[in-house]
């Protein structure tokens, strides 16, 4: 499988650096990519600039949490599959632990109606609004792509089912194949991979096998753990655009079915803004609310497994794939549809269940302005949101 042997020291270094990044990487996927660039390209020089840019491009193309996949990819390039696993564990574990403890505390003390929880929900409003504006300017810059985003909003809000997001993404990809093909060739770089094509084929086959068989198995079984694994795996496998976009998928999977209340869902989503590392670790909170600590660990494994299988399965073939005009065209259109899905999620359930009074809107506007214009880090926004939530009931508005 690997073309060279790695020492225990190499593996420890991968784990140590990823863990340090997991404790300090606040600010969401774009910020994570900046932290990775500083650490892996500038300081450690594990990749050069072009190799890192190619890896980021691949992970933006794949479904799943792009920044987490970049971290996994760096680990794989440096230390093979084991290196990828260690990089994932280090970057993910800190936020998983915090969110599991938050879910346990929320359940133990039942403070769902506490004012600071409402403050966390308002934080979510500001953060998602900021993400929509930032991503929208890059992924839907022209009228055709804005039209795709608008159509995605309408369909997502009118037809709210667990399959709607998947259908929107597939339809957008088909539109992109016909209307957004880019003919120019891109310069490529040969990544020094410790990964065979045989391993890649096995990994990508397993990805599709699980995606096909888990729902079928769930249909003939009433085992809750299988149902949880299927829901989280499907959410991780079919979401494009990163952590914010997984919100509508997870909300559709767990709130209408009664596994978790909308109040619990939004409280956890707000809390997820307060921790460093990938937003996909929100799954750890959901799993813990549903089935305790084992549920949190299962949910984390299930939602990240597709990302890991995909990065292993595509890295050896990326250079040839990215030269296909149809692939690039599909990606352009899917990214535009992602903006529409974000807007739909922003309205329902985030806005409709959070911004009830004028003072809620005022706090959301303040938090958004501090985040977007004053460029305060997200952890500061969370603290201000918590304090603001506590003070809101006392404001004479």
TrEMBL record:
**Principal subcellular localization:** membrane
Q: Which GO terms describe its cellular component?
A: plasma membrane
> Per the UniProt record, which residue ranges are transmembrane?
12-36, 81-104, 116-135, 147-180, 200-220, 296-318, 330-350, 362-395
Lineage: superkingdom = Bacteria
**InterPro entries associated with the record:** Chr_Tranpt_l_chain, Chromate_transpt
Q: How does it sit in the membrane?
A: Multi-pass membrane protein
> Which Gene Ontology molecular-function terms are recorded?
chromate transmembrane transporter activity
Tell me which UniProt keywords the record has, alphabetically: Cell membrane, Membrane, Transmembrane, Transmembrane helix
The listed locations are: Cell membrane
Q: Which Pfam family is an annotated match for this chain, by its short name?
A: Chromate_transp
Recorded hits in PANTHER family, A to Z, give: CHROMATE ION TRANSPORTER (EUROFUNG) (PTHR33567)
What protein family does this chain belong to? Answer: Belongs to the chromate ion transporter (CHR) (TC 2.A.51) family.
Q: What is this protein called?
A: Chromate transporter
Lineage runs:
Bacteria, Bacillati, Bacillota, Bacilli, Bacillales
